[in-house]
Amino acid sequence: MSPAVSPFPRTTSLPAPATVATVRAGRSRSRRRTRRVTALLVLVLALASFARIALGKYVVALPDLVAVLTHDYSGPAAYIVWDITLPRTVLGILTGIAFGIAGHLFQRVLRNPLASPDIMGVSSGAGLGAVAAITLGGLSGVAVTLSSLAGGFGLMVAVVLAAGGTRANIGKLVLTGVAAGALTAAAINAVLTRADIYAAQDAMQWLTGSLNAARWVDIAQVGICLAILLPVCAVLAPAVDTLGAGDPLAAGLGVHVRATRLAALGLAVVLVAVAASAVGPVAFVSFMAAPIARGLGGGAGHARHAALVGAVLMVVSDYVAAETIPGLALPVGVVTAAAGAPVLLWLLIGRGKAEA
């Protein structure tokens, strides 16, 4: 007898060659675009850093700048570069990297462009810890960093618990964070009203966000912390990127959703606290970095792009704050807040149109 013939045609699990080629071509284009965007941001950061160092109120010619950096020049330019502009630039780059990655982690994990340390109150929590340390305890240095870290972590834990624990709905988590940020801002004002007038002035300058008092010891502290935290971010990045596609798909691909979300949020809180302890909770840098990076990347968000955008925002904003208005040097936080407010309105309007 001849074998029975199935009425259904045989199917194969192998994809068609054209499909494989299309996927590979798409991935290749994505990698090329990622490399181009990275190179562009590095170039912009280099140009912005040069302008911040050499093109301030005291202009340093390029040959003199090279001589100063190689310790072959001891004139006035050496003091300007080594004690003022170079520390501000380096600290701006390091803290911008921390703020940018923190914003990327928040928005990627929570899948909401409005989810950032600024909007969700984490920056306010870190600010409350630092303000209490400065005004009530008279502390400085590492103690302020630890207090800032405790404040940020305490607020994040309170937000997660109030929103329903590790199984909290993402929308509820964001709204709870906004409410917690408002309460924390009120607590900061209450602490300031009971503080010594001079301590309150120092705290207010810190809360605005400023690079005016950049010191090499602050740079070393932030640099050491980033040297530890950035490799952790690199290890966590693939799982975080998978979360951006949705919890069911991420779980199906083997990602431990709740553990990854909590680890990413915890890492973001640490990054914000480290940066804020050195320059204050500079407004909207975390919030703006990730959307700008996504726009440059054609919708694909990458942590390194957000880090570079954050660094560019800090350096450019500090230059604008310190050099563009004759006779007036503003804190960097004033410029970032002025730039971030329109971005927030644009995102809110865009989401409203999308939901209409």
Low-pLDDT windows of residues: none
Q: SS-based structural class?
A: mainly alpha
CATH superfamily: ABC transporter involved in vitamin B12 uptake, BtuC
- Helix fraction, binned, reads over 70%
| Count of discrete domains | 1
Radius of gyration: 24 Å
- Number of DSSP-assigned strands: 0
What order do the SSEs take from the amino end to the carboxyl end, as H and E?
Answer: HHHHHHHHHHHHH
CATH structural fold name: ABC transporter involved in vitamin B12 uptake, BtuC
List keywords for this structure.
356 residues; mainly alpha; ABC transporter involved in vitamin B12 uptake, BtuC; globular; transport; transmembrane; ABC_BtuC-like; Iron complex transport system permease protein; membrane
Give an account of the 3D structure.
With 356 residues, the chain is an all-alpha fold. The chain has a single domain, classed as Orthogonal Bundle (ABC transporter involved in vitamin B12 uptake, BtuC). Helix content is 75%, strand content 0%. It has helices spanning 17-54, 62-69, 76-110, 122-136, 142-162, 170-193, 197-208, 216-243, 247-252, 257-279, 285-296, 303-323, 332-355. The chain is globular and about 65 Å long. The N and C termini lie far apart (66 Å). The relative contact order is 0.15.
What are the SSEs and their pairings?
Blueprint: H1 17-54, H2 62-69, H3 76-110, H4 122-136, H5 142-162, H6 170-193, H7 197-208, H8 216-243, H9 247-252, H10 257-279, H11 285-296, H12 303-323, H13 332-355
Helix pairs in contact: 1-3, 1-12, 2-3, 3-8, 3-10, 3-11, 3-12, 4-5, 4-6, 4-7, 4-10, 5-6, 5-10, 8-10, 11-12, 12-13
